[in-house]
Q: What sequence folds into this?
């Protein structure tokens, strides 16, 4: 039981690690985009503010036992992801920016990071599934109750994640 609990905490650490990687990339991306004089400042401000909110959120491993706190954390991360998506859509209007080598490298890193986040969330949910199943299986359920082990919360996608995004370059 304790070993599986530690595995869930380790998996959670990997999720946090990937989100941190994304947050570390954002300022570099924003600085490169700022160089484009005509770029929409409101989009940059939204990205900056979303990142700031994400960095101010105090996340501890205890969040894994609280579905509501995990949901709130995910909403903050989804907001950052959404603002980054809008930034990337706007980039299509700026051919000079798209040819910038630093920008291209950062975009590749960001895409890789988003994939790592997805994998880390999947791995975390798999670990939680195993841990939670063990908690309700006899005789582990008796030991879990005795030693105060409780279920862990799963990552769940936002309800809007099931809708295909609409991208319009005609603006």
A:
């Amino acid at each position: 039981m304790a070993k599986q609990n530690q595995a869930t905490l380790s998996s959670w650490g990997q999720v946090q690690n990937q989100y941190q990687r994304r947050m570390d990339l954002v300022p570099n991306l924003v600085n490169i985009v700022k160089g484009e004089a005509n770029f929409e400042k409101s989009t940059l401000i939204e990205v900056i503010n979303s990142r700031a909110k994400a960095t101010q959120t105090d996340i501890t491993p205890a969040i894994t036992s609280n579905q509501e706190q995990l949901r709130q954390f995910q909403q903050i991360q989804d907001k950052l992801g959404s603002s980054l998506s809008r930034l990337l859509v706007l980039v299509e209007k700026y051919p000079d920016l798209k040819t910038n080598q630093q920008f291209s490298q950062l975009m590749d890193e960001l895409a890789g990071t988003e994939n790592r986040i997805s994998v880390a969330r999947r791995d975390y949910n798999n670990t939680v599934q195993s841990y939670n199943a063990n908690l309700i299986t006899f005789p582990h359920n008796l030991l879990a109750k005795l030693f105060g082990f409780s279920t862990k919360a799963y990552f769940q996608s936002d309800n809007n994640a099931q809708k295909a995004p609409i991208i319009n370059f005609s603006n």
Notes: The chain has six helices and no strands. Helices lie at 2-34, 41-56, 67-91, 95-98, 101-135, 140-147. The CA atoms of residues 38 and 94 lie 9 Å apart.
